[in-house]
């Protein structure tokens, strides 16, 4: 009999890749979709149309909808991927960020406990933003000093996951994911913003790109690699917490240079710096030490930095302007 997985955030970058992976592994996959005035299922429409997944309306800020779906689906595994995940925006809507990003894992875990779902496994997708200003490299034992409402909210969920694991003997684990990108990344994130701006500039559709802090360094990996790490953590014999990272980091400046270089453009000919895109609190440097997951679970990133950039550029070109050839 197939295992049943329930995914929050299934319509997002990570959720869509994870849904594809679980379908390939023979899982029965269900997803929670937040009601929106516009269609927001483009990343999973191929799975829905093929009858490979089932989605239900729900909201991570609504305990009743969570309980209802747990009772209906009766999952063997729950991946909590959904959140308000834009760090800069979290400063503008801190209370909402806390509600959706921080309290959601608590709502799910408490619902599981109250319903007696003792054999159901739970994975919380935590974030490198929890480390904040702690010096790199950062691993599972690094002090966590978050500098944004998003990072603080993720840390709240991270500790509740650990608490339910130790206090109630639940299978509750954390994947501590460093930055991960793909052609499915949302358009408001800096990587996609740079990629799409470069493509539009190359084709004469845009004149410049406006960015904030260029010196922030991030450990950027590929989302498809990272969701495989989540899968390995969920299927480990014991619940535990693992950093998922490449062990390499680059500045926003370097990311921009490489994107524009791949298109034969000079990044600085089109760059406009604008403080409106800077955060009130900056996190200067995130560099993950993923020795634990590599050693215990055998995870390795497959997609290198420049290959990832090339994939994103090709997708942006094809998506907006047709075949790049």
Summarize the structure.
This protein has 325 residues and is α/β, with parallel strands linked by helices. It is built from 11 helices and 13 strands.
List keywords for this structure.
325 residues, alpha/beta, UDP-galactose 4-epimerase, domain 1, seven-stranded parallel β-sheet, 41% helix, globular
What report would you give on this structure?
With 325 residues, the chain is an alpha/beta fold. Helices cover 41% and strands 16% of the residues. The protein is built from eleven helices and 13 strands. β1, α1 and β2 form a beta-alpha-beta unit. The longest helix has 21 residues. 45% of the residues are buried. The mean pLDDT is 94.
Distance separating the two termini: 46 Å
What CATH architecture label of the largest domain applies? 3-Layer(aba) Sandwich
Could you spell the SSE succession in H and E letters? EHEHEHEHHEHEEHEEEHEEHEHH
Protein structure class? alpha/beta
Order of strands, main sheet, comes to: 3-2-1-4-5-6-11
| Helical run tally | 11
Give the secondary structure arrangement, pairings included:
Elements: E1 4-8, H1 13-24, E2 28-33, H2 45-49, E3 53-57, H3 63-73, E4 77-80, H4 87-90, H5 94-114, E5 121-127, H6 149-168, E6 172-177, E7 180-181, H7 190-202, E8 209-211, E9 217-218, E10 221-222, H8 223-234, E11 241-244, E12 250-251, H9 252-262, E13 271-273, H10 291-296, H11 305-321
Parallel strand pairs: 1-2, 1-4, 2-3, 4-5, 5-6, 6-11, 7-10, 8-13
Antiparallel strand pairs: 9-12
Helix pairs in contact: 1-8, 3-5, 5-6, 7-9, 7-11, 9-11
